[in-house]
Design goal:
This protein is an alpha/beta fold. The protein has two domains: 86 residues, Urease, subunit C, domain 1, CATH 2.30.40.10; 300 residues, Alpha-Beta Barrel (TIM Barrel), CATH 3.20.20.140. The protein has twelve helices and 18 strands. A six-stranded mixed beta sheet has the order 3-2-7-16-17-18, with no helix packed on it. A five-stranded parallel beta sheet has the order 11-12-13-14-15. Helix 5 packs across helix 6 and helix 6 runs parallel beside helix 7. The longest helix has 23 residues. The protein starts with a strand and ends with a strand.
């Protein structure tokens, strides 16, 4: 089926725009220009066409951060909740995501095979953590309570030492991981560490990157502590997630190595808003969220000023699924121009994930991921409400 989108304004990743038709044949864009013909016409006159958007740090398998609700929720229930999370993400114009923990191969294949609607996924399955680290959910009581039990296809990922790291990387890849995620620092929601604590030694991180590279995989690092950020960069990890305690040296290292930053700016305030709404969050987590919020914003501004490579990610459901595009507002507040923000959510994110030949812009030869927007596509405050159509690989999905 040759389908032509007629009369719209095509928006490039940098925010520049021009009126043009877009011709799609099957799942691919075959031409962008004027006077194009197809078997079917979609009138988008007066509308803007964005490339499909990305969320480079999301948890589609979970839809809240209330630990006690998770404890009392049957394991399989979360799989059904994921369907709604995927749909909400897709309706936000996000057609591709990098899941930072929780989604498994079955969820990815269910989307791929059309059983459920959702963005295409790269998955990490579970975050690798040291004992007592950000992924170790041993609470002061001694009980092990996380967002979900482990099960076949979603193994635990606590390791200590290079050899355990080697085995765990191979196990996660066996279970279908497209990318490996590691915690090189503590975090806000974990019970027994601080965002200022660095985790793992260099020999462990170097083993992780070595084993990932052997299987053509990259690594993403939950990295908030300054030393944890620098260790991740030294080890050759591709992206720093959160990056709360960046300093000039860390930024210079990122520039030298080409390391990406995925800032998730709304996450700390999301923890506070959830607590204010009645979610049962430990006092320690609320304290940490309050402590890092301003530092996080300042670190981001410094990274923007230095031209660090940045891709958009939300850490949803720390903030609710479906609110993903409000992260763009925070990125603009942090010093990025509207064009830079859009680039971070399209072409930059595609490059981070290694899919820039297929996605990230509206060009001949690329997959036909298109978002039809009424009004200004660079007014991010109301962008979600003005999305009228979402197309993924040539099919209308929202």
């Amino acid at each position: 089926m040759r389908r032509v989108f007629v009369g719209g304004t095509v928006v490039a990743p940098d925010g520049s725009a021009s009126v043009a038709d877009v011709l799609v044949d099957g799942d691919r864009i075959v031409d962008v220009g004027s006077g194009l013909d197809g078997e079917e016409s979609v009138d988008v006159s007066g509308k803007h066409l964005l490339p499909g958007l990305f969320d480079s740090h999301i948890h589609v398998a979970f839809n809240h951060i209330d630990m006690w609700r998770h404890v009392q929720t049957p394991l399989s229930y979360s799989f059904y909740q994921a369907i709604g999370n995927l749909e909400a993400t897709l309706r936000s114009g996000i057609t591709t995501v990098r899941d930072a923990g929780g989604a498994d191969l079955g969820m990815k294949h269910a989307v791929r095979d059309g059983l459920i609607a959702g963005p295409r996924m790269q998955i990490s399955i579970n975050m690798i953590s040291q004992t007592g680290g950000h992924g170790d959910k041993t609470h002061p009581s001694g009980m092990h309570i996380g967002f979900r039990l482990f099960y076949p296809g979603s193994p635990p990922a606590i390791v200590d030492g290079p050899q355990e790291m080697r085995r765990k990387v191979r196990e996660l890849i066996r279970e279908g991981a497209d990318v490996l995620k590691v915690a090189t620092s503590g975090g806000v929601l974990s019970p027994r560490d601080e965002p200022t604590h660095a985790h793992f030694q260099m020999d462990e991180l170097e083993m992780l990157v070595l084993e990932a590279a052997a299987a053509d995989r990259w690594v993403m690092a939950h990295a908030q502590a300054n030393t944890g950020i620098k260790n991740a960069i030294r080890a050759g990890i591709r992206s720093i997630e959160h990056g709360i305690y960046l300093d000039d040296e860390a930024i210079e290292m990122m520039l030298e190595r080409g390391t990406w930053l995925v800032p998730t700016l709304r996450a700390p305030s999301g923890v506070k808003r959830a607590a204010e709404a009645g979610v049962r969050i430990p006092d320690e987590a609320i304290r940490k969220a309050e402590e890092v919020a301003e530092i996080h914003q300042e670190s981001f501004r410094r990274a923007v000023d230095a031209d660090v490579k940045i891709a958009m990610g939300t850490d949803s459901p720390v903030t609710p699924h479906g609110e993903n595009l409000l992260e763009l507002v925070e990125m603009q507040k942090g010093g990025m121009t509207p064009g830079e923000v859009l680039h971070a959510a399209t072409a930059s994110a595609a490059e981070l994930m290694g899919v820039e030949a297929e996605l990230g812009s509206i060009e001949p030869g690329k997959l036909a991921d298109l978002v039809v927007v009424d009004g200004d596509p660079l007014d991010f405050t109301s962008l979600r409400e003005r999305i009228e159509q979402v197309w993924k690989a040539g099919d209308r999905v929202a």
